[in-house]
Every structure is written in structure tokens, then in C-alpha cells.
Amino acid sequence: MLDILFPKVCPSCRIAALKTENLCSLCFSDIRFINDWSFCQKCGVPFGFFDSTDEDDTGLDLKSGEHLCGKCIKGKFCFEKARSIAIYDGKIRDMIISFKYEGKLSIGDVLVDILTTNMPKDLDSFDSVVPVPLHIVKLRQREYNQSVILATGLAKYAGVNCDLFGIKRTRETRPQIEIVSEDERRRNVKGAFSVTEDHKFKGKSILLVDDVFTTGSTSEECSKMLLNSGAYKVQVLTLTRAKRM
Ligand SMILES: [Zn+2]
Ligand SMILES: [Zn+2]
Question: Domains of the chain: which residue ranges?
Fold first, then answer.
């Protein structure tokens, strides 16, 4: 009855009326799913996504026989693999920004739905989901951590435990997306995380969850912490993948 009086509107365009779907078909068709591309088997970067950098030097890894990007051929990441659902642009980017910075908490449900209904098929099994943490100061400003909402929804869907306090951010960092230089991004997050308990993740397979993957410096830094505390495998899943500026 309420739906007839107050039809739900698409949370993205706020124009189209909806019956059950989370997004109207126009907004949904704007999302570019990475699954439709060919991508690096390790870090998940879609090939041809970055502009003429060494990441575009793709090749076959002789050990695994997998198709890897230039960065992964050089063995730059300690996580097992990283996957993202969609490219960070257009409507999904707008929704993430509203969700993160404008307090539109209800958009979280839509994003969780996009994440869980498009789970990459090639992820290995995992025991626990861990969100990339926010620093306490930022958490107070925003009142919630977008990664926690994604991770909680995903853990519920997968029927596994979500470890909200496994890693913490020990100092504030600038948003990675605002930093152009890759070296500077690495410095920005270096030593910015720690595990809250030694051996906390001993023998566990962990899925690290975040909203955006940029150069991978944040995922790499968190993965290092998880592996140091005994995790035997860390995989990374982000809702989106951003093009570098
Ligand atoms: Zn719409
Ligand atoms: Zn790669």
C-alpha cells in the first residue's frame, strides 16, 4: 500500500520509480562490470585500463602460466589476488561518494547488493571478511565506515565471520584517490595499519574488503599486516576499481 502512495525511486538518479529492483535499468546499464573485460589474474586490473604505463606491459607468468599485468609480473603484491566488481566512474562513483561523504547510508544496501550479486567466481574460499579500517577521527566525522557496511553485508551473504576490529588504522592518511604519484600513495599508507592482536589471523584465509582499489597500496599494506599476523592467504575484494589520475 505504501509503495503505491510513495513509489520507491531509484537511489542513483532519484527520478525513475521502482518496484523491486535496486536501481533503474538506465542507471544499472551505466555500470561497467570488470567481468566483461580481460584482466590481470593477480591484481585484477582490466587490461587497457591505464593509459600507456608499464602496467600495460602484460605477459604470461612462466611459473603459473597466468596472464598478468606488468606490475604483477614484477611481483609487487603480497596478497593472493584482488578482484573488483566495476569501474569507478559514472553512477556507481556518484553513489559511492553520496554513501561516503554525504551520509546517504541507505545507498549502502544497494552497493552491498551489487557486490554480492556479482561476486567474482574465481575467489578462493575464505574464513573471515575484514574491512579496511578508517582512522577513529574520520570515523567520528562520518559516523560510519563504508567498508564495514560492505564487509558486513558480504559476510552475511557468504555465511562467514566478519572481523570488524582485526586491523586498525594507527594514523590518519589522506584519501588515496586524491594523490597522483604512486610513490606518494605508498608513503601515505606505509605503517598506517596494525593488527589489534598478535597471531589473530593464524591459519586463516582472509577476504579484505574496501570500496575502491586505486594503485593497491592500501590493500597491500593491510595484506602485509594480515599475513604477518599469521593469515595463510589474503584476497582482496573491492566494489570498484579507480583509474589513476
Ligand atoms: Zn536511476
Ligand atoms: Zn596485476
Answer: 78-241
State the distance from the centre of ligand 1 to the C-alpha of 31, rounded, in angstroms.
Answer: 11
Query: Domain 78-241 is in which class?
Result: alpha beta
> Helix/strand/coil (H, E, C) string of the chain?
CHHHHCCEECCCCCCCEECCCCCCHHHHHCCCEHHHCCECCCCCCECCCCCCCHHHCCEECCCCCCEECHHHHCCCCCCCEEEEEEECCHHHHHHHHHHHHCCCCCHHHHHHHHHHHCCCCCCCCCCEEEECCCCHHHHHHHCCCHHHHHHHHHHHHHCCEECCCCEEECCCCCCHHHCCCHHHHHHHHCCCEEECCCCCCCCCEEEEEEEEECCCHHHHHHHHHHHHCCCCEEEEEEEEECCCC
For residue range 174-224, list pLDDT tens digits in order. Answer: 888 788 888 888 898 888 888 888 888 999 999 999 999 988 999 999 999
Ligand nearest to the CA of 16: 1
Ligand 1 centroid–CA 66 distance in Å is 38
